[in-house]
UniProtKB/TrEMBL annotation:
Keywords: DNA-binding, Transcription, Transcription regulation. The lineage of its organism: Bacteria, Bacillati, Actinomycetota, Actinomycetes, Kitasatosporales. PANTHER family: HCA OPERON TRANSCRIPTIONAL ACTIVATOR HCAR, TRANSCRIPTIONAL DUAL REGULATOR HCAR-RELATED. Belongs to the LysR transcriptional regulatory family. InterPro entries: LysR_HTH_N, LysR_subst-bd, WH-like_DNA-bd_sf, WH_DNA-bd_sf. It comes from Streptomyces xiangluensis. It comes from the Bacteria. Residues 13-70 form the HTH lysR-type domain. This is LysR family transcriptional regulator.
Amino acid sequence: MSAVPDSVGPAEPSIHQLRLFLLLSEELHFGRAAARLHMTQSALSRQIQDLERRLGVALFSRDSRTVFLTDAGRALTVEARATVEAMGQLRVRADQWARTLAGHVVVGTIGAEAAMPYTHAILEHLHARHPRITVEIRTLNFTEHLAQLLSGDIDIAFLRPPVPPTIELLELATEPRVACLPATDPLANRAEVSLADLTDRAFVDVPPEVPRIWWDFWAVDPRPDGTRVRYGPVVSDMEGLLLAVARGEGMCFLPAAARDLFPRPGVRYLDVVDLSPSVSALGWLAQHRHRPGVQAMRETAAAAMAAPGWERGPSR
């Protein structure tokens, strides 16, 4: 059994030690916890022992085969988790202000938005108008693109609505949506289909962390006749989605640009005669609209759209 530490240690626990404690409290096995942390069992044990000395309480009870949380350990997991989460939030906020003070803006993109003409036009205008602003582009998956905007990990994003109400939008372009079907589907050789033709097809789904308002639009759920969509495999990004379609596990709807940007073996794209179009937009948190990087991007996008040659219709 673990002995109660002799006295309170001279130093406060580190955030690193609290993270180790929380992970070990989940695994209750030094070997598995050490493997997840990519460290040795002995190094993990030393860190936990030092944490216990600093706190003045035993967190775990150990014998040759098992590890248990003590009563103190169970009670302190709540505070430890809150402390780690608070430190993470502090880091996010500090990074946001560091970007503001340094003239740095983090721009998120999803799918093929980084390749779209309007994205290039806006970034070129930004460089011309604000040459001292540095730009970091992050390509994000289905789960990340809205989550990171809402958390402040990114400042602004090229995305496809709909979005939660706390996000403001500047619409950039529109284009049709197309059906993405397995090449083996009986409809795959047709030039066009209707939503009714696709009623019985399973639709590829996304993780529960993705706001449902977003995927309901892309799945057209419910359909115009009130039919609810039957969902198939869950995917997190575009390549996973296209693979699921190619394997015949489901279908999806995508912007028409996917025909050129995402050709894949085993996948066919079809026009849908009664499907509403997709909107491309620049999005930012409403509460961040006046931050220097966000404001520069907003104003630059508006100026780019007013320049000769900009097309508000289908994406080029």
